[in-house]
Write a structure and sequence with these properties.
By secondary structure, this protein is of the alpha/beta class. The protein has helices at 24-37, 63-70, 91-101, 113-128, and strands spanning 2-8, 13-22, 45-55, 81-85, 106-110. It has one domain: STAS domain (Transcription Regulator spoIIAA). It has a five-stranded mixed beta sheet, with helices on both faces.
Length: 131
């Protein structure tokens, strides 16, 4: 199992990369530790890179994270996007389910990291009214 992450506090951006086989229990432990220490990361833009991922993290594995998300002190601040990087043509369905599981966040899918960063740039411009 390999789960790596980088945090860019200046850009309010979290990038998580999952490589190899990652179980639901391993993801729950990683996410619980990360967000337990830094709850403000819920209000960062997030890119989740799954291009090298194999595993069985499922919808139910996100329930503990969903509980912490629901209890954060400023629930209105989480209007930041999440972008999942995957080649799975059906992952847009999971992205839509994540929108329901984490109200206030919008999840998108991109086929590459470059595409994810480009999407974030476009969303930022739209939000700033530059489109």
């Amino acid at each position: 199992m390999t789960i790596q992450h980088t945090v860019d506090d200046a850009r309010r951006l979290l990038v998580i990369t999952m490589l190899g086989t990652v179980t639901g229990a391993e993801f729950r432990a990683f996410a619980g530790d990360l967000y337990g220490r830094r709850m403000e990361l819920f209000d960062y833009e997030c890119i989740l890179d799954l291009l090298g991922y194999e595993g069985d993290v499922g919808y139910a594995d996100l329930s503990p994270l969903q509980q912490v998300y629901a209890e954060r002190p400023e629930p209105g601040a989480a209007a930041r996007p999440g972008i999942i990087v995957t080649l799975d043509p059906n992952f847009h369905l999971w992205a839509a389910a994540l929108d329901e599981q984490f109200p206030g966040r919008k999840h998108y899918v991109a086929a590459s990291l470059e595409g994810a960063f480009s999407r974030l740039d476009g969303l930022r411009k739209m939000q700033a009214g530059h489109v």
